[in-house]
Amino acid sequence: MIKLIRLSFAALALCVSVSIASADTISGKVLDSAGEAMEGVMVSAFDRDHRVSTSVFSQADGSFIITNLRDTTFDVRARLLGQLDQWQNGVKRRTNGVAFAMEPAKGELLERQRTADSALGMLKWENQRDRDNFKNMCTYCHQIGTLGFRSPEEPVDWETMIVRMDGFGGLFKHTQKNIVDRLLDTFSDEAVAEWPEFVPPPAPTGAATQVKITEWDMGNQDAAMIHDMEPGSDGLIYSVDMSRNGVATLDPITGAREFYTLPAPYRGPHSIERANNGDMWITLCSSGAMAKFDVRTKEYTIASSAESGKPRGSYPHTLRINPKDPEGLIWYTDAGANAVFSMHPETMEATKYQLPAYDESAGTGRGETYGAAPYGIDFSPVDGKIWWSKLMGNRIGVIDPTVEGGNIREWEPPFIAPRRLHVAPDGIVWVPGFASGEIGSFDPRTEEWEVFQMPRADNRTPYALNIDSNGIVWICGTGSDTILRFDPKIKEFVEFRLPSRVTYTREIEFGEDGSIWTCNSNTPARHTERGFGSIIKLELIGD
N or C: less crowded end of the chain, CB within 10 Å? Predict the structure, then answer.
């Protein structure tokens, strides 16, 4: 097997041409090997002491400027798929005239840049249904086909690894019989040597370059799983680290990080959301429990996630809290119980809403026939109704909390594997099709769908989406080291590349200033470029 090869920070650098700038910036220009200006090259300033990088893109004239840097020195990298990384080390803040000359990557160095969506495309299937089933069941923890994926930990072999990973039993029976051979035929050293040369997508241009990205490494190296994150009302960013079993906080101003371990024996922090009083609520999927984290005392309060009388729930998954709800109820899915629950934040008593069985939904006939797995959940800003998705059962549904019993209904989307949905300010329900590489909008008034195919849809795995206050849809580019923006008015996608290779995103949140937040939660963390999880902030700077 190929062993994991960490991308080194070895510099292929030019000398720095130094002049003094007038602000807390680093600026310069990027040229190609012929001396022409290059647009769309990501330039990142790494602050090693604070474990944070700040990235921008070169513009049409090759220029770049990185702003709001603290008073220290930085290692600066220029990166573009298809080109060799170029480095300038020890660059001081307030330096102008940093020059990069890019050189094409070839051979093995080019192959190392192949993104997971391209590697996933090397895996061939007899039909689309089998392909969608594999994407649904085998890409929900990590990217497929990366260097780390192609080198399971020794002495574990591929067969043992795949049996362990298919613990949910979701792969089709005929796929279970041949999946090990199929993977070896695609991802062994010998197979990779026969792959066609990686053809990188075109460099970003226009709106795709009008963004500033800040990334903070989180957790312990090779032992981090920053599953979800949530901006706090106190200015901190709160996240759950499943590897360390607790809540990690980040002060994005100072870079300070703190960690708060869950009390034994509770485990499996999964989803985190801010309550209306500023506290954080967390689903503990492994323990079948709910946890409240008091942001003032830093203490946990824990209760069973099941209805009264039961010591634990099955697999509490994703939660949401409506800020307009006077009771501040915590709503969450239980992926193992085919149920949605609401919990009162004071009494911590849970109310169960049992969801329909497979054959009780509207418009059935296309989805998978195994399991249910209530997964994503959200509230409607229009009427307060609660919407959820069933990943395995291939459904979305609604609860009306004002009606006894919830008046529960479900529908089947016209695509496969609805994952973390959200409801827009106008009440339209937006749903990512994780296995089919699409997003869909569902109008509850007409019960009609509109479906939009993402770029390179066959190899897309959109884990989650969210809608900002302007109605713009933001989508996780989970297998492609990107995040995407979709404008429903003009029906166009813009794809923003993220700074680090093997960036697996599964949640999107928004800051009060309009910033977009996500986190890298690929597991194992050793697959990722530096071996850490991370928290990532995007700011639009010129669009």
Answer: C
DSSP secondary structure string for all residues of 70-108: -SSEEEEEEE-TTB--EEEEEEETTEEEEEEE--B--HH
Domain assignment of residue 390, yes or no: no
pLDDT band at 366 (very low <50, low <70, confident <90, very high): very low
d(CA 429, CA 470): 15
The rounded radius of gyration (Å) of the Cα atoms in the chain is 23
11 within domain boundaries: no
Range of the domain at 182: 114-193
What confidence score (pLDDT) does residue 168 get?
55
Domain boundary among 161, 193, 225: 193
What pLDDT does residue 370 have?
53
* Calpha distance 286→264 (Å, rounded): 12
Q: Is 0.90 topped by the overall pTM? A: yes
CA distances from 451 to 378, 393, 464, 473, 488 (A): 20, 19, 15, 13, 11
Q: Is 163 helix (H, G, I), strand (E, B) or coil?
A: helix
37 located within any domain: yes
- Spell out the alpha helix ranges (H) of 253-397: none
Residue 18 is encoded by which pair of tokens?
């130094």
pLDDT, one tens digit per residue, over 392-409 is 889 999 999 999 999 999
Q: What is the CATH number of the domain that holds 101?
A: 2.60.40.1120
Residue 34 CA: distances (Å) to CA of 7, 37, 61, 300, 451: 26, 9, 14, 59, 43
Within a domain: residue 457?
Answer: no
Rounded distance, CA 498 to CA 519, Å?
11
The mean pLDDT of 434-453, rounded to a whole number, is 97
DSSP code for 360: G
Alpha-carbon span 251 to 235, nearest angstrom: 7
What are the distances in angstroms from CA 282 to CA 118, 168, 251, 328?
35, 23, 20, 15
**Alpha-carbon gap, residue 177 to 181, rounded angstroms:** 9
Using DSSP's 3-state secondary structure scheme, residue 212 falls into strand
- 26-31 and 95-101 strand pairing: parallel
Degrees (nearest 5) of the Cα angle 382, 449, 404? Answer: 45
Report how far residue 239's alpha carbon sits from residue 474's, in angstroms, rounded to the nearest whole number. 20
